[in-house]
Every structure is written in structure tokens, then in C-alpha cells.
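Batch manifest, entry 17 of 40.
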Amino acid sequence: MAYPFINNYDTFIDYDINEANEVWESKDSHVFVKRTTPGSNSVKWATDLVENNSMFIMRFWEPFVFDGDLEWDEDPFGDWTWQFYFHSLRMVSHLMNAYEISSNLTFLEKAQWFIQSWMEHNPNPNNQASERAWDDHSTANRISTFMYFWNYYRNSEIFDEEFAIELLNMLRKHGEFTANPDNYFWNHNHGIYQDRALLQLAGMFPIFKDSQDWTDIANQRLSEHIENGVTASGVHKEHSPAYHYLVMKLFIDVNLFNQHYDIENQAISDLVYNMQEYLVHIAKPDGTVPMVGDSFDDRVLSISQDVVTNEHLLFEITNGQQGVEIGSNSIVYDDAGVAIFKNDWENQTPIYFALFNAFHSTVHKHSDDLSFVLSYGETDYFIDTGKYNFVESDPYRAFIRSVFSHNTISVDNQTYNFRNDDFIGNPQIESFAITENYSYVRASHTLFDDVKITRTAFVFNNGAVFIHDRCESSTHHSYSQIFNIGPD
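Output type: C-alpha cells
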């Protein structure tokens, strides 16, 4: 789609506030993304920020105490991830959480101060205090936070028209930046964040002359994500159950926005349904996902039933009070390279077995093909390592992504290159069967030079698990089976 990008970021428009608020005034309530949600600590964090300049960003870091002013090049932890959340204006979202709970204008005033300060120091992509300021991801997050702020600020006692017009111009700049394909993160979950933000910005502020173009661009790019980023069976392709859950929630946000404003998009509704079906299968007995790829053990069955459209997931999260029980506990997603075998958890000690064998891209990829996890009852017998930061120079991160941190096979005591695009599509599910008494899967890959490795796994419902590995090569090699045992 051709798009008349505005390269002059200094363009200033004297917007009419009443016109800017037309959509906002048209409904009693609105659906938009909140980067953080009000909670028991919201008022405490906001109070510490207002009274002590103590800035809580996320639980991974101690609060950052500053001297009352900011240059916006701060990096107190030497951590680009902290800078990303800093420039996402996460502290503003925390302040808005506190204001939503308390209606204390001090929190709204402080949120305005942070926004004004950020705009002064980072007026456009060509004039920014940090390379994290106008990053694809932080820019998308700021759009959401600006809209959260606008919802409360526009009719508040501290409303200032001059500042409001400045903010509207900044929002337009964010829309222009995010719509530009040069700033878009293609084939990555970050792109979905951008589309979600752009779609909601365009829908809530049709006052911007390019809003309809932004809507069309966002919908087209979302369609490409559905086509290329998720398998036909509904499994996200970033090799990590936690990212499947994250991306599903992004599409849920888009779907809820569409429904609230009477926008029809059946492809997204169908996608959400299928992605929720996968949660029913991938969830362990305790409701978490296995820590595979770059995953933490997210408690996916704690999802709010208000956003659930899949009747099988609804059955799980309501303990059978609503929805419909799924027909089969076991499944093989051969297009995703995932096999999940379970016995009858209602009448037997729960068995959970999952094997992973897919190379969709290099995004969040580990050298973990043919790896599996196995739980029996409440005990995790064979585990995966999950996410260990994103600092690729960290030797622990390198080890976690190597073959040695996964329940799979090494050749000549070496790992293989998970960054090699030529390996995309290499691992295969060759065959499988699910019967009344047992399930099996046979999978293979040729990711080591001149070696084909085939793993066959049988899981019997009475508790027996049989794994057979076959390594074939025209030359001599040494092979190592690697098993990572759980802490219990």
C-alpha cells in the first residue's frame, strides 16, 4: 500500500479538542490497552514516585531514584531492557493505575509532567535522547499509554488545551512513525504490538487525516502475521509456549477492540479461538506451560473467562462449570512440530509428555529439536531450561540456548547453529498415532552435518514411557543423549 509518509516531524497542527474527543464522547466506556493494570501496589509505587522520585519500572530492577529532573538518557542498570521500559513510559502507566484507583490529581499531574518532559527531550526520531526512545516497540507502547492518559486527562480539572494539542501532535507523529514500513518489525511479535497500537490510535482519533490509512495498514500487516506467524492449526511460531500466550493476548486485545466498536474481522476471531484451543493441550496439570524456548512457566489457565471464546478452554478454567470438555487429551500439531500426550487425568495419576521439533524461524529459537519434557503427578522428571535473559553475550544465555540444556542429542559433543536460516523447515514429524492405551510420535532432523537423528517416543497411559533414538551417518561420530532432571 502506498503511504504518503510525512518526513517533516516538525509539522504542527492546531487541532480542535472537541473534534479530537468525538469518538471518546460517543460511548460510556472504551476499550484500549493498558500497559499495566491497577493493583494492590499501584498507589504505593505512585506515591513513592511523587514524594521521593523513586521510580518503580518492573520487579526485575530496584526502583530508580533520580534527582527530580530527567535527561532521558539514564541507564542506571546498564540494561537496554530497562531503558526500553523507561522510554515506554511505564512509570506513567503506573501513575494512571493509581489515579484510576484513587482519583488523586497529584498522580495525573505527575503523569503529565513525565509526558511533557519526554516530549521535550525526544521530540522526533531525528532528535532523541536515547536510541531506545523512538524504538519500534517503545513507540507502540507509548501510544497505548498516551491513550490511557488521554482517557482521564481530557475531562480532568487540570486539563490544559495547549498541552493537549502538543500531545495530539505527538500522537500523530507516533502514528506516522509506526505506519512506516521502515520502522516496522516484520515477522516478529513486536510487529503485532505496533499494529495493535496503530489500529487503536486510528480508531480513537479519526481527527488525524491518515487514520483510515493507518487502519488499513495495521489490518494488512495483522493478516500477514496470521498467515506467516501462526500455523494453520493455531500455534504461534516463535518456539515458546509463553510467546504463544503473549501473542494470543495481543490478538485478543485487537478482537475485543473490534467487537466493542463493531468492526468485523472474522480471521482474527477464528485465530483467537484456535490459539486458545492450544492452551488446553499445552497446559500442564498445574495450569502452567512448560519452560520451553524463551518461556517462563506462565499460568495460562488463570486467564480471565471474560476474554475466552473457546468452549474447551472455558471448561478448563471454570473447572467444568461452563463450556465443553475437550474430546481428546492428546494431540499432535504436526505443522507446529509439537506432540502432547496425556492420560486420563481424572482417573489416573497425571502424565504430561510434550515433544518439540520445529524450526520455523530464528526468533526465540533454541537448539532444542527433538527435546521433550515429562511430568508424572506433581513431579517434573525431565525439564527444559526456559528463558535466561536476552543478553546474547552472556555465557549462561549461550549455554541455555545450546543443545546441552535440552533433553535431546549432541553430535561429537557439539551443538548446532540455531541462527542458520537454512535450517528453517528441517525438523519433521514423520508419523504419530493416538490410541486408547498409548500414543506415539516419530520425529527427525538433519541439523548436524551428514547426520540424521530420529526419535520415537511411546507414552503408555498406565505410566510407561519408551524413547528410542536412531542416529544415521555415512561417517563416524560420537553421540550423546542429554537429559535434564527436574529439581524434585
